[in-house]
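During the reporting period the student researcher (J.K.) took over the structure-prediction task from the postdoctoral fellow and processed the backlog of single-chain submissions. One of the processed entries is reproduced below for the supervisory committee.
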Amino acid sequence: MPAGHKIAARAIKAGEPIMKYNVCIGFAASDIPAGAYVHSHNMDFREFERDYAFGRDYLPVEVLPPEKQATFQGIVREDGQVGTRNYIGILSTVNCSATVVHKIAEFFEEEFLKNNFPNVDGVVALSHGLGCGMEMTGEPMDLLRRTLGGYARHANFAGVLVIGLGCERNQLAGFMKEQGFAPGPRFHPFLMQETGGTRKTVEAGVAAVEEMLPAASTVKRQAVSACHLKAGLQCGGSDGFSSITANPALGAAMDILVRNGGTAILSETPEIYGVEHTLTARARSREVGEKLLERIRWWKDEYATGRDAQINGRVSPGNQVGGLANIFEKSLGSSMKGGTTGLMEVYRYAEPVTQPGFVFMDTPGFDPCSATGQIAGGANVVLFTTGRGSMFGAKPVPSIKLATNTPMYRKLSEDMDLNCGEILDGAASMQEMGQRIFDLMLRVASGERSKSEDLGLGDHEFVPWNIGIVS
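J.K. obtained the following structure tokens:
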């Protein structure tokens, strides 16, 4: 028996539902005796009727009064947003300006910033593969612009440059008009074709960043309520221990955050499929629950129909080796990251998240793409559970890695921030681990560097969702 896999607790007849935590994760393909190994070889994946029970289990949360809420050392911006980091960002409207944005960022080495502008966490280039060869109007373009706009106004940026080529479909002027941006001390637009080409645009971009740095470095952290934290919840490289340790422990931490007035953003729509009824039952209204089901239907009926995609059953090879037989079983663990409080709202990809409490954002399961949507929506910290070991980071937002088991934590300790495997080892209870995750989140939000930041991860994990055709 590989670690993290399942055995039958009782005899299961052929065709009978296989239940885990009292939730169906598949059906017996043949008679399974008690004590037998249960995995994809003897488990059928097929649809089953679910009772969505809208709002049946919803209970309002008693948010702590302001004077009793936990605090962290945050960066308060002029518009009232609160940041956890202080970056200058350089965004590309199109892949054609990708090299230029990276060359501008490369000019500002870490040692230079540390010696001259110690309160600036970095200058980061965020490029992507979209912006041209795509639909000029409609959802794909709206989604790209919404993502870029969410980053450009993110609380973790002291200022941004946005650089385009000039002839692309994602026109810089159209983006600025649609997203409500105008040139100013915090926002500098450039078009390479108007600025004079590659070299001159790099020089102009470097000069613009040099102008921003003195003001950016004057920021001071101050004590603010944890209600200003918006946590993006991610899991990757999941295994059979994810639903036993790290995911429910992260859920316990999010229950604490919600009681402190903060926001927990669950995402990865394919990874709640099969257990979405457990979330609709917690929805604060039928309307919120129906929003979630509408997103599920779009995935199933329009986006992934007939494709060998995760939502249609098969999980990744790593998940299989880790003990997860299909998407229903993976979703069962994944959904636990959101804790136990009521589902307050459902958002589309990269929409601004304004509702406190536990919310859901529609994203793919692909972690960089999913986290990009959450950050565009306002997440200022990412918490990432992993059983197999995921090497992920994001800028301008710190990422905290939570290991599901002790052997992996020891092997990959340079990448993991906390070992939730201590729950399995008997060294910590679920609630103790939840409190430790919450306390670690406060420290990281206050400026303590996470392991992914120490390793310099995050320069290449900006991945807007490409849902349209390439032409």
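The committee noted the following: The first strand starts at residue 6 and ends at 7.
J.K. will present the remaining backlog at the next meeting.
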